[in-house]
Amino acid sequence: MNEAVDVVLVGAGIMSATLGALLKELDPGIKLELVELLESGAIESSNPWNNAGTGHAGLCELNYTPETADGSIDTKKAIHINCMFEVSKQLWAHLTEQGTFGSPKTFINPVPHLSYVSGESGVAYLKKRFEALRGHHCFESMDFSEDKATLNDWMPLMMPGRQADERIAATRVEGGTDVNFGALTNQLIDHLKTKPGVSVRYAQKVYGLDRQGKGWRVKVKDLKTGNTREISTGFVFLGAGGGALPLLQMSGIEEGKGYGGFPVSGQWLRCDNPEVVAKHHAKVYSQAEVGSPPMSVPHLDARMVDGKKSLLFGPYAGFTTKFLKNGSFLDLPLSVRPGNLLPMLAVARDNMDLTRYLIKEVMQSMEQRLDSLRKFYPEAKAEDWSLEVAGQRVQIIKKDPNTGGKLEFGTEIVAAADGSIAALLGASPGASVSVSAMLDLIERCFADKIKSADWSARLQAIFKADAKALENDPALYREVSTASSKVLQLV
Fold first, then answer.
1. How does strand 32-35 pair with strand 198-201?
2. Which segments cross the bilayer (predicted)?
């Protein structure tokens, strides 16, 4: 059976759902199909228990504000991510205002964001970071304190049981958020399904991607019936999380050659005890240990999932050769190609610290994990916490002219020169900036259409300002942020 659509979205996660929603807003007549390997949306990385659920906005993530060689704080990444999150909020608010999208309370809720440090050097760094950020309009509501009474008000679960002479400090931004990206993804998909020309199918395995004129022929197998079919399309988006790399390799496009993936699994400690949960209403991030990768930044998070509040602490890293939580142990070895072998070997050679870190993490006992938690919450009791397996993250490995290959901890869009196919690789900060990532993809792959008067007008109706404008215009930032926050019931 051969079908024809304008767009095929592979993977029912936050990225495909966001791209589908954007394209339908820009062109209501566009015909698209979303296919997913599993039996519903948001089961992998977008699932609320497979990620931190932080509305990443640079408010508390210390790895976004590194200290430079001259001792100053580099704030560029934190500011940029903050403004990209505001772009995401604009789309979610726009959809909410339509009245058919559902309540924002199902996926986003206000939760203060705190950065917490201990020790002389940690406090000195945090104070310097506060002073560097506080001067920018994105962070003008940030507070800093070393006062124990104030800190007890901010994080009452974390203060009892500490040594009286322990030097600690924290910053706090009341306007942070907790986001259930699984609920958001499924809300976006349900919204798409109400639109004409949209098909969403689950238990669908893409087993072939072949060039067809200016577009693609996507070969799909129904895992329930065993039936196969082919879809002719002008554009394919590979938004399958860790599964995007093998699909990119399947496409054979020149731009995808040389990319590899390094899979990292994760674990959390989870608490559902109402007495404990009630004492912590914040997301509290601290510093990674010296030599540890950015993914290891410890944090104690208040989570709201399906109307129930819990606490998560972690992450604890692990290693597996799977690219997806529901994947195969053969994923990593089968991804090795002549074109990416050198970069992967170079990364293995240059990242022995990461290897040692992962081995150490995998070998930890439950008591050792609880010891890490007690640095945040000294009076934590073992019986209140259980170990949960989080989602898979496949970090990007790519060619590097100087070293042969490098490992990256961000996200990257890899697209064919003709814009007919694109894949999103990598992870953090991922879901929080999904709207900016997909707008970038649209600019690259739908370049002619996005310049048209029709698409330009529709974009301006959704987005009052892009990230760059928000970075540079304090009054515009305040106006846009306040407006979207009101619609999303965050203020």
1. parallel
2. none
The amino acid sitting at 321 is T
Helix (H, G, I), strand (E, B) or coil at 336: coil
Q: Which two tokens stand for residue 110?
A: 């206000």
Cα–Cα distance, 302 to 180 (Å, whole number): 12
Residue type, 158: M
| Total count of residues recorded for the chain | 491
CA distance 89 to 423: 23
**Domain 2-477: which topology?**
FAD/NAD(P)-binding domain (3.50.50)
Find the helix packing angle between 14-26 and 181-193, rounded to 10°: 40
165 to each of 157, 161, 260, 362, 375, how far by Cα in Å? 18, 12, 48, 34, 15
Residues 6+ apart with CB under 8 A from 42: 12, 13, 14, 181, 182, 183, 185, 186
| Rounded CA separation 6/320 (Å) | 37
Distance CA(16)–CA(428), nearest Å, equals 16
**Which residues are 73's β-sheet partners?**
67
The tens place of each residue's pLDDT in the chain, 491 residues long, gives: 678 999 999 999 999 999 999 999 999 999 999 999 999 999 998 999 888 899 999 999 999 999 999 999 999 999 999 999 999 999 999 999 998 899 999 999 999 999 999 999 999 999 999 999 999 999 999 999 999 999 999 999 999 999 999 999 999 999 999 999 999 999 999 999 999 999 999 999 999 999 999 999 999 999 999 999 999 999 999 999 889 999 999 999 999 999 999 888 888 999 999 999 999 999 999 997 765 665 668 999 999 998 899 999 988 887 788 888 888 988 888 899 889 888 888 888 888 777 777 777 777 888 989 999 999 999 999 999 999 888 888 888 899 888 988 888 778 899 999 999 999 998 766 899 999 999 999 999 999 999 999 999 999 999 999 999 999 999 999 999 999 999 999 98
Backbone angles phi, psi at 407, to 5 degrees: -105, 130
Beta carbons within 10 angstroms of residue 161's beta carbon: 10
Strand partners, 264: 393
Strand partners, 230: 2, 219
Burial class, 486, CB count within 10 angstroms (exposed 0-12 / middle 13-18 / buried 19+): exposed
List 232's β-bridge partners, or say none.
4, 217
Q: CA-CA distance, 14 to 415, in Å (whole number)?
A: 19
Give residues with Cβ within 8 angstroms of 63, minimum separation 6.
288, 294, 297
pTM above 0.70, yes or no: yes
How far apart are alpha carbons 203 and 226 in whole angstroms?
10
3-state SS class at 55:
coil
CA 49/CA 310 separation, integer angstroms: 11
